[in-house]
Amino acid sequence: MLRLVAVTAALLLQAFAARAQEARPGAQAGDVYEIRRESVSSETTNGESSASSSSRNMLMERVIAVHDSGVELEFDLPQDVSAEDRAPIWQFPVRVLRPPQGPLQLLNGPELEARVERWLTAAELTRAACGHWYFTWNAFQVECDPQSVVQALAKLELPGDLRDGAPYQEAGGRGPAVMRREPRAPDGTVFVVEMDIDPEAARRERAQADIVVAEIMTRESLSLEAALQARSAERLSGTIRITFETDAGGRARRRTKVTELAIEGPNGTRETQTVTETVERRLVPRPAGS
């Protein structure tokens, strides 16, 4: 049971699985945000539905301090997570600095390192397991690097500068693409970016998934070169559409990314994969009188 609970953290970070950001304006010490992420995926083969899945996660972001070097933040699980479920999750709480420009910076690394050791001991794992993939009720990777937490949090960051006509680059897409403004939201503005999928990036992602499957199923390693070669005959195409919704102050509050990938196999089979991922950031009202 303990190991299964510990897996929750790995799955959470993979689901939340960095670009330089500008520090979010208007942050005040004591502000608390809910960050919700939802992902829905579906697959069809030769026009018939073959698979679907969904996941939902939430983190809390608390502003600790605001100073010249940036905004100091703490990310943690929601308060209603039980002590029993929280105990094996070494990744949270985590403190980071969001500088005026550049990536997030980890502030409590030694604390996370100590938690990793306790987590491995409780899960009856050694450092030799770090980085490897396993399967219990789901596939998960044993992650032992505190910097991986920062990398996962970076993927939850919403851009601080949304402008009509601005270039925007998204991992896995052929870009940069031009952002366009669509003022149709009643209490803010909508910005949309559309681009074609980079087929080689998609092929590499599929090959890396094959490497994971090989390790889980056979406990044998599959080289990236061999995995790419096995996928070389596939014809890949598709689109990425990203919609940003802002609040009345012009700050991004929601990002919805829809990725559609078409795979034509060498034997004529045609698969379509659609993934919709939504990240929403909501300010939690302060208690009256605070």
Account of the 3D structure:
- This protein has 6 helices and 16 strands.
- The protein has 290 residues and is α+β, with helices and mostly antiparallel strands.
- It folds into 2 domains: 1-40 and 49-157, no CATH class; 161-290, no CATH class.
- A 10-stranded antiparallel sheet has the order 7-5-4-3-2-16-15-14-13-12, covered by helices on one side. Strands 1-6 form a two-stranded antiparallel ribbon. Strands 8-9 form a two-stranded antiparallel sheet.
- The model is unreliable at 1-23 (pLDDT under 50).
What labels describe this entry?
disordered N terminus; alpha+beta; 16 strands; two-stranded antiparallel ribbon; 23% helix; 290 residues
Write a compact overview of the structure shown.
The protein has 290 residues and is an alpha+beta fold. The chain contains six helices and 16 strands. Residues 1-23 have low confidence and may be disordered.
Element layout with pairings:
Layout: H1 2-15, E1 21-22, E2 32-45, E3 48-67, E4 70-76, H2 83-86, E5 94-98, E6 101-102, E7 105-106, H3 109-122, E8 133-135, E9 139-141, H4 147-154, E10 167-168, E11 177-178, E12 180-182, E13 190-196, H5 199-218, H6 224-230, E14 235-246, E15 252-264, E16 270-283
Antiparallel strand pairs: 1-6, 2-3, 2-16, 3-4, 4-5, 5-7, 8-9, 10-11, 12-13, 13-14, 14-15, 15-16
